[in-house]
Amino acid sequence: MKILLAEDDAVSRTIAKRTIENLGHDCVTAKDGLEAWDMYQNNPDIEVIVSDWMMPNVNGLELCNRVRGLEREGYTFFIFLTSLGSRDHLLEGMKAGADEYLTKPLDTEQLRMKLISASRVTALYHHMRTEDNAGDAVPPTGSNSAPVSIPAVSLRGERRNPSSVPAAPSRVERRNRMRGKVWDILLSKGKISEEQMHEALETQKGSPSEIGKTLVSLGFISEADLAQAQAERLSLDYVELTEADVDPEAARLVPEKVLRRHGALPLRFEDERLVVAMSDPTNIYALEDLRMISGRQIQPVIATENDLRRIQTRVFAVGEQVTDILEGAREESTEDSDLDLGVEAGSDEAPIVRLVDSILQRAVGDGASDIHIEPQAGELVVGLRVDG
């Protein structure tokens, strides 16, 4: 990434520039906010600004306000570098449109983690913009106030009267719609108070974690609250996953181990795209993996990590394992014999043992209190009792 560093202190500027370059990024420097503003306007390649707060001519707060007010292709990730660190001071910076902040003296590990977050947001914007251009054949006109907008996905079971609902905006229109920060959305919806935001900012000092996860860890919001705010910010849909949302054909396009590694689950096909629930849609590497393996463009929607793990367990713990077990047993059986599940073998590798193991895994994953096995004509029905 190309990073603009605005810092009026020469020693601090040199140290920060060297640190950024050692992390593998290209860094240009400005000695005050006015110089930084001129450089930013004339350099479209700048994706991240790391700015000191107290600077002559134009301070960091004013620089942030100007950046957010400029119509510009792409999204600029803004990080405040400050030695003040008071609660009101930090909240003022966030309200101005900063994405993150770092306190002085500069900590290399914290800077590295903030830049990883920056690279994911900016990379996601470029990734989805490329897909929008291919799908809409319309030249993009970016807005610097929003990192990304992605086409809406109708939630399963949602019913609307087409005559009473205005036409849905195109992907380009949605991408250009202004979005606030996660904390702005949470504040505006009454999910958190300014006092709680103050406390979260204080707690986050010295930590590389994102402010949203800090709010969850303090118990101020739920994981679902954070996911919904992230979805609104990115113009994505948020889904409360159920097993009924998953089209088995779509889920089988990507190996289970890949989906578990990336915290993702394909839900269905929509036009030529694969709709995928993800806990972190800014993970550009995951999006590329899913696209290459499935052979389809990926349209992400946001779900909580807990929901994804729970539904992954339900979708994969029994379905694919039972199929593999029965197929293996069928291959070992002769053409004229009954299906051999290895009842007499007693080995841990016997199909019957693995079949029972898979049922138990599913029961544990669902938090079941009972397992009911009901032999019926031509089939065996396994039922789980969950929450009564």
Tell the overall outline.
elongated
Portion in strands: 15-25%
The major sheet is characterized as: 5 strands, parallel
Enumerate the spans where pLDDT stays under 50 for 5 or more consecutive residues.
136-178
**Structural class assignment:** alpha/beta
- Radius of gyration, in Å, reads 25 Å
Explain what the structure shows:
It is a single chain. With 388 residues, the chain is α/β, with parallel strands linked by helices. The protein is 46% helix and 15% strand. The protein contains 16 helices and 10 strands. It has a 5-stranded parallel β-sheet with strand order 2-1-3-4-5, with helices on both faces. α3 links the parallel β3 (46-52) and β4 (77-82). α15 packs antiparallel against α16. The protein is elongated. It starts with a strand and ends with a strand. Mean pLDDT is 77; it is low at 136-178.
